[in-house]
Design goal:
Elements (H helix, E strand, L loop, with lengths): L3 E5 L4 H13 L4 E4 L6 H9 L6 E4 L2 E4 L1 H9 L3 H6 L9
Parallel strand pairs: 1-2
Antiparallel strand pairs: 1-3, 3-4
């Protein structure tokens, strides 16, 4: 099943911006909170090669961080990508 996963921190303003954009699209997503589980940092590095949050996955696709997500939005790619997900992912 395709889904959206965000590695995030409560203290990160970029994480809040990325989540706000996804919230505005009405999609469900899974939050993996590095504050609650610091071992997730190792998982982030292994999956992405990055050591920053947010790190966003839409299905199997690693989107990247907040700027990358907003770049998809500016290019008009985000909405079609989200609409391609299984309907249960959408909150509409």
């Amino acid at each position: 099943m395709l889904n959206i996963v965000i590695y995030t921190s409560n203290y990160c303003p970029y994480c809040r911006r990325a989540r706000a954009l996804l919230d505005s699209k009405g999609v469900h997503y899974t939050i993996l909170d590095v504050d609650a589980n610091p071992r997730l940092w190792d998982e982030i590095i292994k999956r992405t090669g990055c050591d920053t949050v947010p790190q966003i996955f839409i299905g199997d696709r690693h989107v990247g961080g907040c700027d990358d997500l907003f770049d998809l939005e500016r290019k008009g790619v985000l909405e079609p990508l989200l609409e391609s997900l299984i309907p249960e992912t959408l909150n509409r």
